[in-house]
Amino acid sequence: MYTLLMISFILHAVTFLAFWHLRQQLYSIKVLEKKQRKIIEEMDSTMATYLAEVDAQNDAFLLKIEQKMKRIEVEQPDVSIIKSDFEELKEEKLNISYPKIDLKSEPELTFAALLQKEMTDRIERIEHVLTKEEASKLSRNEVQKIAFSLQKKGLTIEEIAKNLYRGKTEIELLLKFQQ
Asked: How far apart are CA 78 and CA 66, in angstroms?
């Protein structure tokens, strides 16, 4: 009988030690979870701060561009800068496409004139060699400009839609909103 009592006591002690060990592991997991939550919160706040700084820098950059455009318009009234393009860029901050300007080949032109020339050249290049893949990469504003330009050249809505790989109704709407 004492042997059964001793075996029972040993089994209870082993069980108690096993529970104590499992409880320690659970406690260490909870501590680790708290540390991870703290790290995640710190990373979230760091990323939010970083994004706020990037947004502030982007807004400052857009403001500088807007001021530069106004100064160019005042200094050179004969050069037209398309304001709707700038306002669209302002609204779609992530979808900015920077025009490529070769300042070395034409140093006699001003920056505004070079910018206007590059935008015109780009639209003309797009009109002449436009594949289906290239047409799908065009922004809505570019499609609208090309469609309007093609309409001025005398193409019908069906021909414009075919050249831009778009639907007839879409081209009709773009042209109506342009007017």
From this structure: 18
| Angstrom distance (rounded) from CA 43 to CA 47 | 6
Q: How far apart are CA 135 and CA 166, in angstroms?
A: 9
| Cα 85 from Cα 92, distance rounded (Å) | 10
Return d(Cα 86, Cα 43) in angstroms, integer.
34
**Pair 169, 157: CB distance under 8 Å:** no
Inform me whether the pLDDT recorded for 21 exceeds 90: yes
What secondary structure letter does DSSP report for 170? H
Q: How far apart are CA 105 and CA 147, in angstroms?
A: 30
pTM (2 d.p.):
0.34
Return the DSSP state at 79: S
Q: Which residue has the tokens 């290239």?
A: 134
Give the separation between CA 121 and CA 7, rounded to whole angstroms: 94
Neighbours of 164 (CB within 10 A): 23
pLDDT tens sequence across 129-149: 577 787 788 888 888 888 888
Mean pLDDT across the stretch 79-102?
A: 50
What is the number of helices (H) and of strands (E) in the chain?
7, 0
Q: Which residues of 124-134 are buried (b: 16+ CB within 10 A; e: fewer)?
A: eebbeeeeeee
